[in-house]
Fold each of these.
Amino acid sequence: MTAGPVPILAEGLTKTYGGFTAVDGIDLEVRRGEAFGVLGANGAGKSSTMRMIACVSPVTAGSLRILGRDSATDGAAIRARLGVVPQDDTIDGELTVRENLLIYGRYFGLSWKVLRERSARLLEFARLEDKAGDAVGTLSGGMRRRLTIARALINEPEIVLLDEPTTGLDPQARHLLWERLHRLKQDGVTLLLTTHYMDEAEQLCDRLVVMDAGRIVASGTPAELIARHTSREVLELKFAADERQVMIDKCRGLAERMEELPYRLLLYTDDGEETLAAVNARGVRPRTALIRRSTLEDVFLTLTGRSLVD
Amino acid sequence: MGTSAPAFRELGYWLFRYRRTWRGSIVISVANPLFFLTALGLGLGKLVDRDGALHGESYLRFILPGMLVAAVMQTAFLEAAGPVLQSVRQRGNYRAAAATPLSPEDILYGHLMFWALRAVQNAVLFTGVSVVFGAVDPARAPLLVPIALLVAVAFATPAAAWSVTVTRPSQISAVFRFAVLPLYMFSGTFFPVEQLPSWLRPLAWATPLWHGVDLGRAVALGTATPFRVLVHVGYLTAMAVAGLLVARRNYRRTLHV
Amino acid sequence: MTVTANPPVRPRHGRPWTMVERNLMIYRHTWPVILAEIFEPLLYLLAFGLGIGALVGHVPGLRGDVPYPEFVAPALLATAAMNGAMNETTFNLYAKLTTDRTYESILTTPMSVRSVALGEVSWALLRGTLVSTAFLAVVSAFGLVHTPAALLVVPSALLIGFTFASTGLLVVTFLRSWQDFQLIQLVMLPMFLFATTFFPLNVYPRPIQVFIEALPLYHGIELTRAAFLGTTSAHLAVAVAYLALLGTAALTWAVHRLERTLRD
């Protein structure tokens, strides 16, 4: 990628609402052309962070430079070079699909001539050519999200911010969206996204941070995070409800770490087979047992002590 | 027909909802006509009463029954049209009620009772204040309440029959603007129909609101004759019954598919 | 497809006009709404001008005696300008702020809150001009216009539209729910009825006259009525100043309050 100012550079970034601290002095550096993920449960401070980076919400304390400019003074100039895909699709319900792209482009001061050409290309990119003249009310969830993404690209942004891009979509729609985001990355666009989904983060992100209660609790590539914060394998056990507690007590001390979740018990270990054998040797009879590799979900659980989707 | 007990459950629903909005609705249904009454009856009345154009009757006493009846019509239309459209939508309360043992007729009758109660409430408040204003003879004022009730039912049933089939809210505002508002203004509410050009008068006499307004005015001013009362009451009753029959059919067709 | 390979088209900052473009694009689908807005004042003119006019005859106390229809027509134009502008910046704007959340996405672009506010007010003015011009044309066709000065009702309506669009914008920043619209009604309807729309100021006792003279709509009606009847007086300068000041102050405050709400 070509050299230039760091796309996003935050130091001690803080946001408070009244007495409540949503973002508590975080540092971030997003590099040009990478896909950067922000993980966290609801209320961890992801959306507040995104809104500050989008220059729609003023920074309470700390510094935030985007594309080399100060977000506090150059908001409009920065926004001119960003694409924003908000969590809820805020597409204009009174306009048709194509009109949404055209009018949104006008907000950037782009000429009608440029917009006609770009909207045609973006409709194709979003696979919405057949829907161009339709009211947006007739679109499916996946189509609405693709239109929102197409809309965010109308100004040919250098950075695209995506807040939970695939929440609420069916598996097919998610895969189509991921594929489109990969293409954007290949074209050199810097992506910053928040997500609930660990598989999405593993699929899309070069690097990521995990947020909890307004702070960053871990950062790195997905592989680094797994290596650093969790064991190689996980043994998942399920028990019958009546003997659950007895069985769990019997398992104590068999693994480096144990996590009790509703309906299942996770044992973190470097060798799942060996641990399962030890479990059986103690007379524990699980209804099902599963050995799998550790994922980001386990990293999250280790770091925050709770599962992500709650 | 006749009202079955389940209809009272539907009425209960509307009364329950009304607990949250009654303050605002009293403002709209009583304060608005009172503003009109003060501005037109007292203010404009000063200009009108100069030449005794109304055969010695003051303009205030002349427009009071008209304002009452027209306001009741407007409220009946608005409460029957918008809320019915809202209720009949997929997530509306008619759909929820139709999934219980309530029949479409029960839902209609229950809602109709609510409109009738609202009309009586408005009419009592409105005539009460008018008596204080000296705008109506206290002895004849109570007679305006059943007239208001009849007018409300005569307009609410056709409005409900139509609204239950409507798909877009803009249709309702169009009918309000292009049908209800002209009725409001040209049915003898603000000036005698005799002031209209001669070719327009028969049209005004044919409108249901004129029958309501003229009935109210004849009763309030003590000029009613049995024949006149019979014609007006007959017209409005026929309209109410016809509206109810069509509404029953449309409710059944829409809610039990 | 490449998204960034093209030579960059240098984006300029979004301007208020863009908001007008958005609304125009919507009106391509819903233009009959504007017809309804012209229809309503005409209906009042017919009912009051002709029906009640026959009872009233002439309105005394103005320069000579004025036939009643010519007395109410300019006032109805002023109230139409007021209602059109207020509806646009209260009802429609509140829907965009809460239900549709239209501005949320607009503000992620270089558009500023100020541009959005100015754009919405400009749009209200454009609509107002359309309605007042059409109303004037119809009224002329009825033969109620006797002076070329009547053309001045259009700029007068524009000023009224500005004052009330800005006031509406300010009011909307204070609303807590849809129920609050009834409070707006509670102010707007009496103003419509009492601010000399249907009868002259001299029907009131003096203390009430003072109160009426403080209403913005009263000044608006003074302007349109003077233009329509071709009269002039020193008071007109007061009316223009009052409306312009009120509008500017309301707009400035409204933009300040919107900044706080929309960029939290």
Note: DSSP finds ten helices and two strands in chain C.
Amino acid sequence: MPLTREQIAQRIAQEVESGFCVNLGIGIPTLVANYIPIEKNIMLQSENGLLGMGPFPRESEVDADLINAGKQTITAAPGASFFSSAESFAMIRGGHVDLTVLGAMEVDEQGSIANWMVPGKMVKGMGGAMDLVAGARNVIVAMQHTDKDGKSKLRTRCTLPLTGIKCIKKIVSDFGVIEITSEGFLLVEHAPDLTPEKVKAATEGKMTISPNCRPMKF
Amino acid sequence: MSSKVYDNAALALKGVQDGMTLILGGFGLCGIPENSITMLSEMGVKNLTCVSNNAGVDDFGLGILLQKRQIKKMISSYVGENALFEKLYMSGELEVEFCPQGTIAERIRAGGAGIPGFYTPTGVGTLVAEGKEVKNFDGRDYILERGIRGDFAFVKAWKGDKFGNLIYRKTARNFNPMAAMAGKITIAEVEELVEVGQLDPDHIHTPGVYVQRIFKGVNYQNRIEQKTVSKG
């Protein structure tokens, strides 16, 4: 069995170090926050202008002037700050955000990512994704390994319009944890119910199985 | 100094004409200049180029100008919440320049700050880079992006004084401070308009020099796109 969305999020949470400033994208990345222990004292960055995002508000606290980048109502955590969009992206582009987690439609063996456009079908815009992949010191992609027809989303080369080139270092998919190296994909952990060979067989891009490849732990 | 204070949106928006470039603050429906957008709709000005991170929703924000086909071109980063936008774009009725969110913010800031262009790593190797100069600094490629100025800029602030000093509230700040800098004429609408001297200078986000006209807005809806609450 491949991992659930929650398990992907849980595994990514292990990558978050104490004191990190982290930007979490929409979808599975948002769930990562649920698995980061409070003792790690991390600050969540929301690119619409908030560092120190808190949980969803109680009904009585809902404030139209306090939303996250997904336009959801949220709260500000102790130590939070508000700022303009230019300041927010100075933080992002300037490499001050320690970790970005975002979703993808495709990632290729060079670490290029496509997640904003399907020509002729989905044209919503890239939002802040291009800035985030160009600027964060560390970008982790949370994604499904294959599409609903079983076709690999870890490609030799991305086929969809790119969000960024050669910027992804790590993928956590429902099949395993994959690092991007100069040799292509390197499988370092596999979903407990899948063999490394099975993960490799489901991957279009060039994949090497690390000699130390082990089952994922949660 | 003649007064910057106008009694209402109708008086403040005098001079906005067909074919102009407008810069608007706001993120989603948060911190958008609601009164000015309503007035643009009532004025019926057409062939507008609108620079705004988003395009509102079908029946609110810039969506109401799209409904009346007043916008010729949008420069935006994300328009996912607006079905009409997608339809007009796909059919070719609306011209769209997709621009990464941080790049739009910086283009507006640069325009307002007298900087005609700047190099950014964002978008290198993507569709966004097409036709743009690429320059290598210290081993990394960057693309040249241009500053933007508008004939008019529209911003929404929480409090303002009669000189045009502005204070925004929480994440309603977003694109408003940059938009304020980049209008040949910047029109600020505020929830509360106070006398000069009543705002603490240490708390001002936008100094009044950027603002040419200011009015007290009315009937704010402060609409929420995604109301999410925690249990308990």
Note: The longest strand of chain B covers residues 150-161.
